[in-house]
Amino acid sequence: MTTGKSIVVNASGPLSITFGSTSLTAKAEGRTLFSFFPGQLGPNSAPGLILTTGLAIYVLDLGTGAVTFTHNGGTTEDLCQALS
User: Fold this and answer.
1) What is the sign, positive or negative, of the torsion defined by CA atoms of 60, 19, 70, 32?
2) What pTM does this model have?
3) What's the pLDDT tens digit per position in 42-55?
4) Domain locations in the chain?
5) How far apart are CA 6 and CA 30, in angstroms?
């Protein structure tokens, strides 16, 4: 769907990324933008684009592409909804 809307966000982090033998882990502690492909957060999950504040942990399984995402404290803004 094309709405013609746009949004400008400050997603300045900080964000640290650690590569393991089977996974990638991103730890965010400030304003951070995360994107998700369809199905990445579980079967039939929608794609997403979210802006978080506070502690957020994104773990990508390099073998399956599955993502585990946790967010504790802070705020979450669904930018897909904001742009719809």
Assistant:
1) negative
2) 0.82
3) 889 888 899 999 99
4) 15-83
5) 22
